[in-house]
Structures are given as C-alpha cells and as structure tokens.
Amino acid sequence: MRLLRLTAALLLxxxxxxxxxxxxxxRPLVMVSTNIxxxxxxxxVGDDVxxxxxxxxxxxxxxFEISAAEAARLRSADLVVSNxxxxxxxxxxxxxxxxxxxxxxxxxxxAVDVLPYTSTDAGGADxxxxxxxxxxxxxxxxxxxxxxxxxxxxxxxxxAARSAxxxxxLTELDADMTDAFAVIPSAQRALVxxxxxxxxxxxxxxxxxxxxxxxxxxxxxxPSASDLADLVSAIDDAxxxxxxxxxSQPDRLMKVLAEEADVDVTVTELFTESLxxxxxxxxxxxxxxxxxxxxxxxxxxx
Length: 302
Description:
Strand order of the largest sheet: 2-1-3-4
Structural class: alpha/beta
Distance between the termini: 87 Å
Oligomer: single chain
Strand content: 5-15%
Helix content: 40-55%
Largest sheet: 4 strands, parallel
Mean pLDDT: 84
C-alpha cells in the first residue's frame, strides 16, 4: 500500500508540474548579443518573433558572459544577431560555436562604414561603437530587415511597416542631434571619456576626440600613470571643461582625472555601451541617444 500511495503521489506531482510548465514558444527565435541591438531588433519584429537579449542592462559588452543554458539556446536559435568588430570579447567563443552549428547569423558591423579607433594605442583596430552615429544604425536596419522578412514564420509585411516607422524615428534623431550640436563652437567640440567610444559620433558631427582614460580599444585594458599624465596634459591644452564617464563603467578614474587637471572640469555620465533597465535613464536606444546628446551639448556649450 505504501508503494502504491508513493507511486500515486509521484504521478500526481508530475501532472501538476506538467500543468504548470509554460508551453514552448512556436515563434521564431532571434538571439541578440547586446542590449542596444536587442532593442533595435525588438522594434523591427514586434511580438511576432521571440527576441532574447543576452547582455543585461548596464553590463559591459566587452566583458559580459553567459550561462551554459544561454549558450545552448544560442546554438538552437533561428537567427543570431551580434555587433561584431571585436566588441563581444567575452561572448565570441559562443558566437563562433553557434555559427559552427549552422545557426544563421547577422553581424551588424558588416553593414556599417567601419572606422578605425582614433587611439593610436589600438593599433588601427576597427572601432565597434558605430551606434553613436544614428546614420550607421540606419544602415544596420536597412541590412537587417530583409533577413528578418525572409525568416520562416515571420509576417514580412508587418516587419516592413515597423521598420519604416523605426527608420523614420532614427532619421528624426539624426536631424535633432545635428541641430543640438550646431550650437557648440568648433573650438569646444572636444571629447574626453574613460573609454574610446565616440569615434563615429565625432566623425559624423565634427568633434575631436582628445583622449580616453583607458587606452586602446577595449575596456579590459588598464591605464598607466603615464597614460593619465598625458591625458591631463591634453585636457589642459584643449581647455576641456567637461569630461564624460560611461554608465557601464565606474567613474572613479574620471573623478581622479578631473581633480588632477589644472582646470575646473566637470564629470558627466553618459549612456554609451549599454542600455539601462526600465527605471534607468536609457531604457531604449532612441532615449539613450537623446539623453547623451542633451548632456554633451550642455557640457560643451558656452
């Protein structure tokens, strides 16, 4: 009797657990590496596609890692969307494994006009931060839309309609950024941050990248005493009054740098390599770019 009762209890538990488990989604699955690209993809596909973004809000795209379960799901996706250009340093082995398993891939960096890092420490490496120029993001959207429209189970007409609306929003953003930056005198268009992330913005809108606390093209590097001394000199020479710290990285070094510079320098936070959660200041790409534009224009204007 005890055996029968135990068996019945186990069967009942199994039935309860089965009833509580969520059914597997029959929507196409798109796995996206960074949360900036995840937001872009979500705006294009809506609810017709399951979009899974691997990078958490506020994370560093150069260093974030994923779980074994996420890596396994990456290899079973219908499409993997990544930034490329060396950005996802901690994720690249999993992206390679998914490609090796035959998963379709879209690399955003293949669709942009790639710039080299402005830093000589980067050795001429490609700069992956193309999204700081909305025109480059438009190029990514234009290349990605046909890939999404061709996926099995996707309403191509719905994707086309969403992409047209989102492309219009990006075009409006580009125009607004142009107007906002136009009030900054050319002599004051000097950018200093803790990581080389503004190359595309500088090229598009006529800024000079004076320098960055972290040398080279990756946040995994570390500044030396001489690096900091050189940057202090560059700040003094350029007469920079505001330097910018990225939200995905601690700003302690930026504050030390401001204290060392022989001028009254303000440290202003920007959202550059990662979106925030819904409660933060940059929950989506369009908001992030508008907040950054306002802070840069305010920090550098007369």
